[in-house]
């Protein structure tokens, strides 16, 4: 079985915007993200993005643009010889009461099935309590990224724990 690191997107990989990331231009990836993802892969983790994107069903962004934004991230990562293995997103609004919007664990559970992931060896990193709640419901560890922390700092501390 595989082990994975699940990453929330907004606030972890890129700057969060209160008015949603609507264009590639608004998609501002934090500087040390490629390095962090590279490091995770080196440690043998599959790296999967798990993101709530209610902007889709709010009619703020099209699926096409959302995919373009994710391809832009892949482009940036490729320039650094790394990549995200898979993106899972929930397009629903909170009032749609879907099964996939975090804190529901559906996206994590689906990813675990698709990639034969051992949740006991896996971790979700997010900047919201809902990320951690989803992680716990899916049976993996949750690490909360604090406001003053970067993904690379968390990854580096994971490396220390594994040594
Ligand atoms: Mg977030
Ligand atoms: Zn959903």
From TrEMBL:
Its EC number is 3.1.3.-. GO terms for cellular component: cytoplasm. SUPFAM superfamilies: HAD-like. Keywords: Carbohydrate metabolism, Cytoplasm, Hydrolase, Metal-binding. GO terms for biological process: carbohydrate metabolic process. Belongs to the gmhB family. This is D,D-heptose 1,7-bisphosphate phosphatase. It comes from Marine Group I thaumarchaeote SCGC AAA799-P11.
